[in-house]
Amino acid sequence: MQQEQKLLIELAMFLAIAFLLQSLRLLLPMIPGPVNIFFVGSLLNMVMALAIWRTQTRWAAMIGLLLPIGAFFQGQLPIAPMIPVVAIGNAVFTLAADALSSDRRAYLAPFLKAAILFVGTQFILLLFDLPAPMAKLLTFMMSWPQVVTGCLGIFFAKVLLHRLPDPR
Predict the structure, then answer these.
(1) Which residue in 12, 81, 131, 136 is a FRET match for 159, CA 20 to 30 A apart?
(2) Who contacts 71 (Cβ-Cβ below 8 Å, separation ≥6)?
């Protein structure tokens, strides 16, 4: 029972850290949009990877499922139908990072996430008649920057993982 409580506390801590890092966009509004995508995105991917590697539970994927709700309320996702697209991409990233964590294969997780986000975004754009500038921005945000931020997140998570004390 005590081990289960520790696990839930650690997962809650990772979720809180993720929401705090996501809020950097609001606290540091002077950071240009593209820099913001790469900076905050890398940190969030790092937290998602760390959460599953440290806790060794698939419940860590819940962090990725909840983050797009916060992003929507912060104005980072311009339309609500993007929430499930990003949630699925984050969950796949987290679970793939865990399944492939043993070596460099973990760096495949960002490619899976980017593919899901790009295809999902194109589907949403087909369903909704968004203004061209918004459609262009969404397509950019959900394409190759996801690979970059995912790879940086994996890299930083691997570095931090070896520096943190063993949770058991």
Answers:
(1) 12
(2) 22, 77, 86
Q: Return left, alpha or beta for 103; rule: phi > 0 is left, psi -120 to 50 is alpha, else beta.
A: beta
Question: Cα(77)–Cα(83) distance, rounded to whole angstroms?
Answer: 7
Tokens in use for 49?
A: 């990877």
- Two structure tokens written together for 61: 């994927």
- Of 46, 59, 58, 77, the closest CA to residue 12 belongs to 59
d(CA 136, CA 122): 10
Please state the pTM of the whole predicted model.
Answer: 0.93
Assigned CATH for 2-161: 1.10.1760.20
Closest C-alpha among 104, 79, 107 to residue 93: 107
The arithmetic mean of pLDDT across residues 3-18, rounded, is: 91
CA 59 to chain centre: 15
CA atoms within 13 A of residue 87's CA, in its CB half-sphere: 12
Model confidence pLDDT, tens digit, residues 76-127: 898 999 999 999 999 999 999 999 877 788 999 999 999 999 999 999 999 9
Q: Where are the domains of the chain?
A: 2-161
